[in-house]
Design a protein that fits this description.
The structure is a single chain. The radius of gyration is 17 Å and the shape is globular. The protein is an alpha/beta fold. A six-stranded parallel β-sheet has the order 3-2-1-4-5-6. The mean pLDDT is about 95. Helix 1 packs across helix 4. The structure holds 6-O-phosphono-alpha-D-glucopyranose and magnesium ion. 6-O-phosphono-alpha-D-glucopyranose binds next to helix 3.
Length: about 210
Amino acid sequence: MKYKGIIFDLDGVICFTDKYHYLAWKRLADKLGIYFDETINNRLRGVSRMESLEIILEKSTKKYSKEEKEDFAEQKNKMYVELLEDMTPADLPKEVKTTLDDLRKQGVLLAIGSSSKNAKRILKHLGLENYFDAISDGTNITKSKPDPEVFLKAAEYLQLEPQECLVVEDAVAGIKAATDGGFDSAGFGEASECEMTTYPLSGFAELRNIN
Ligand code: G6P
Ligand code: MG
């Protein structure tokens, strides 16, 4: 492996919380009488909670105050956290765990770079609370992806330069963040179709082939 460190996005890369985010936002949107579907949900990947809410409110005819918006975001998060309760280590794909273990054996430092404020909670559910060498998440950043801050912080925590790290992402916003921060990137799903992605991949185990 030519990189000293790998920084993994969490949602959509290590585990699949998209469905829970969707359900929680859908319940809130239904309650407010706002149209929301999976296509709009796709735009929320990698985007912070408040920015996600703003995207959902684009379909609303009503204007809401800052306090109302904060209340909506809190309601959504409460529902999301309840849904996360069902997550167990069985939700960590085997391919992900064995690949992470192999990379670690090669001496690569492993970090999380996620916009989520629930990252540590999710890692705990998956049985990975003490697994990573560093965690940079929604609690230590002021700007979410596509700003590179979350990955720059992760590299700093690993005491590595961006050029020494690979960022692994499923969202175009994350690939933009990685590129702007000076990182090479590997992308799955929509991120594999992005022309800025250094290594377009179709499966997690393919990370082992990057050398
Ligand atoms: C990740 C997800 C986004 C989510 C964001 C904030 O980046 O891909 O869909 O909006 O985290 O999550 P949070 O758990 O803080 O609401
Ligand atoms: Mg993601």
